[in-house]
Amino acid sequence: MIAKIVGILEDLEEEFATVMTNSGVGYLIHCTKAALMNTTIGESISLLINTHYKEQKGIQLFGFASKTEKNFFNMLQSVSGVGSKMAMAIISHLSAQGIINSVHTKNALEFSAVPGVGKKLSERIVLELQSKISKIALYSETTNNQYTEPSIRRDAILALTQLGLNQLDAATRVNKVLEENAAHTKEDEEGNLSVTSLIKKALQQ
Fold first, then answer.
1. Mind listing the pLDDT tens digit for each residue in 16-39?
2. How far is it, in rounded angstroms, from Cα 32 to Cα 128?
3. Would you identify the family this protein belongs to, as annotated (predicted)?
């Protein structure tokens, strides 16, 4: 099974990329928009890969910009009615962060805006992903529902590792957000980020 491909972006057609590796083999990869962002033909590209095999289509490669994207790709396909093509379309349309936001706010309309995703399916996606995302410590933000810095730091790092980041990367991102937050707020307001806000900002790092 192919887990990662690093090479030169040789060709690009819509959401498909041809990546030429040092071994001389070119791979046709179905990529998310984020995976192809800021990359042009002739430049180096690194993609995390999910390998699928179907009798009629053979081996298909799906490329992602991050482990978070790859995890959401698998998570979306656990929902009845969502296949690999639709999962890619949802990730490309909403992004990993957009999926988190839409599920967190129970905004099924965001999913139904994706071609091929009807009202019932979008509602099913929100419902089923809520239970999955809740297991990785994504908590609802409510007015006056704030946590102390040590507590949200621990919970945010746990959530990020469950989303696919390694412990060091998750801790680095969270620490950076907390430092930036402290630099822009008064001393007595430090740590007033909620868990969800901290996770969202850490994913944007």
1. 899 999 988 999 999 998 888 878
2. 22
3. Belongs to the RuvA family.
